[in-house]
Each structure stands twice: as C-alpha cells, then as structure tokens.
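Blinded run. Sample ID left blank on purpose so nobody reads anything into the name before looking at the predicted structure. Input follows.
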Amino acid sequence: MKDLYSVAVEAMAGEMPRAYGPFRLVKFALFLMREVFPQHDLLCEQEGRLMIQHVAGDSGAAELLKRLKGRTSTFLEVCWRFAVVE
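Blinded prediction complete.
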C-alpha cells in the first residue's frame, strides 16, 4: 500500500467487504469482488464437484471435465484483457 498500487480488503463473514486505499483502486477492487470473483468461484466450484465425482468413480465426470477444460482461464483472460489500471 505504501506506493499506492494496492488495496487492503476487510471481508468479515456476513458483512459487506470494505476496501481501503486509493479511491480508483478501491472502486476497482469492489467491482472485482462484486462482478468477477463470484463468477470465477462458480466456475471453479463446478469443476471441483466434477473432480470429486471422478475420483469417486463416476466415469461420466471425466468426459465433462474434458469439455470444461480451459473455461476458467479463458474467463480470466477475457476479463483482464479489458482491465487497465494505471
């Protein structure tokens, strides 16, 4: 935070997260927490459930995982392509 290129985030369970730092970065951090991170977490959760099913012996889960491969990284690449923080 010293050079004003980062924010500190306070995220207590059951409360709205709060970000501290330069206003433009706080706005960006709150946007990410509201719009980007939940979608990322959903994609990871879906893949994680399929991995557990695959390990438990579900043969169909492996095929579904193959179809989903790269989906999360593509989502992040698309998001960061348009994210410019100066």
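Unblinding after everyone has recorded impressions. The longest strand covers residues 8-10.
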